[in-house]
């Protein structure tokens, strides 16, 4: 009896893995709850920053233009790197949690841009201009805003609110740009939701094997989209293309985040959060523009 007390039986591995997976899910749920207060402050922050952005926008574009190529080279190198490195599971879960919150807003913003604001915008803005703003101007301004506000020591919540407003404006422009074009599409916010839950669990199960962790997280997101598409009968070329595009953008974001965390980069997670949201919206705009059916040719409508 004494020996049994001194040498307790080891906890089965399956029990430990199950407990760790449950812990990672609870952490992700807490991330979503923590961002509720930030979302409620978004309107106030956007109101305060709107005038400042209007005044500093041209200067920001000039500053960003000179640094695009080095950033692009770093992105390509990071995406191609599968070497052994610590994977910051908590930071990745946090990043994709808030990215999904942004994309929920963008989902509704795109709808509003197509059917409510679109007729008003068409009075003074051509669709080509809206496409140019959504593809080039707003991503560059957002990148510059991150750098400037971070250099000024602004609170994270204020930076997220400012860029959240830019994301909403971009989604309105995207919705306006693709109004009259219809295509089957996956839910734009579902990929980051799936990754925010699956990746921490995969990391605990397989360790810092980057290929396996990425395969589990991205594969799960693609599988869920395909399952939902099969159930709803919405699978088409545009649906498949957007599903893969969203997974590819998410994978690139994870790779860059791993690189920057390993290099002790000072870039905060909001830079990745908004990069994911902007990338998803740009992918949607391009796919709808190239492969969407016109209103006259479409036999049914697809909600933007």
TrEMBL record:
It holds the Pfam family ZYG-11_interact. Keywords: Membrane, Transmembrane, Transmembrane helix. The keyword Transmembrane applies. InterPro entries: Nematodes_ZYG-11_interact (IPR008574). The keyword Transmembrane helix applies. It comes from Caenorhabditis auriculariae. The chain crosses the membrane at residues 96-117, 123-146, 158-180, 186-206, 213-231, 237-258, 270-291. This is Uncharacterized protein.
